[in-house]
Amino acid sequence: MARIRTVPIPDLEDGAWGNVQVTQEISRKNVRLFRQERDEWIIITNDYKFNASELKTGLNLGIDARDTRRPSGWDGRAEVHFHVQNELEFQVDDVYLRVAPILTFHHLMDVSEVLTTNVNGSEIQTQFVSDLQDILNDATLKKPLWLFNHSDDVWAQDFVEPAYTSMPGPEGPITLEVMIRSSQGSRTAGRQVFEYLRNTGRGAAYSTGGTRGEINSMGNLETIPPYSFKDKSFPAGRIIEGSHAESYPTYPHVYDYMRAQEFQDPLILDTDWLAVGHVDEIVQFLPANTPQGWALYIADLKAGIKILEDAKEDHGDTPAFSRPNNTYTSKGLRDVPGLTIAELLTDKLISDNQGFAEKLDVVLNVLKAETGIAPQDIHYVPMVFTTGVCWGPDEGVAPDRNCSTKHAAALYPAVLNGVVLSNSTYLSPKPWGPLIDGTDIMEEATNKVYGEIGLNVVYIDDWYSHHEGGGEVHCGTNTVRVPNKPWWNTEPPAGNGERAGGNEL
Asked: What's the pLDDT score for residue 502?
């Protein structure tokens, strides 16, 4: 609740009375008013009358919101009307409030909890969960792991986006975690957000109407940490989302919902050329000792190809993938490709990655133009993409992307698609690159680029649990974080809404 108090009015007649109302119908349905009686808070209606004695000493009231800001319907505003009747005379006063925005976490915030899916009976997912638990149990991390136990949807990143809302309080910010269910009504795993994640201190929200398509997965929503550039300021960070369809850009359904919050104006990037099409496949923002406190990491496909080309000179017969073949007893798993480096480096692979690199240049130019990030704060992660990756008909990938020879997916487990566990630890999928003189050359390159900002890389095997399905460890997990700075000390960026100001519920 936000507190509302009235000034004592000592000179009232004994028969005086007053009431406190929210008169607009749409607002009244979305807020509750409370009065305090001893140690209890009791809901009041618009027609509840306070007596003269209460008005003389001053009212101690509370108000809370029952919904969030919405792109249509309630915009979060409430006008609270105070009426005092003193015999034939009356006085009125109004206060204008608005529900605080829903904001997404970013990687400068500490992790409080890691989420993943536990699929009973799946040997592969059980091993992934066990390995993840061992990593989180490390004395330098000690992060709790929460399991979705009521679904076989292993993409914990995609059906929920952990977020928060906060307001000033007498002892500091008051924060409520808000789990945003993806706008994918047919994705039943999202129901767990309401059934099991919602709790005391943690709410849940849902923006209905989206399709099961991957554009609406929450892996397609990430957050740039706070920054200011030119006439724009984003004290709570800024959302990025990927669009599909070059000729007629299609935005994620949740775009309008996040824009309605008015503080993290979503920046749209082109992910149409990716088979899955999520922004977390190509960019990330990591804590670093830079003027803005973070660095931009982006996939570098030319560097990935060059690593293989250099290795081919003297080690062309070396297996291109170092992971042992299926190490599980489960049936129906595909073998790890048995190609050598020389066999892998076809003209098509090289040409495809050159074309995808041009797409990444466009993405990078947008990010540079919007954030003003300095060249020395941009880091390039060697990776290799491929085409022709196939999924089942009910897995959310659009038919034109499924088995496509034009759309990109990670060939090696995509090290960029990892999890920032702390300011010093980065959890990455193990790339299983070629072994030369006992060293995985893809892993070596990964250690080098993340070491540039002081991150120690911890690896986890997600080949069969997630990589084979077109995702990685980031796609298969999620994180709840701890807000570290209040958002209300700075006005929202210009142009994000019709008006700003007012108090926050």
From this structure: 41
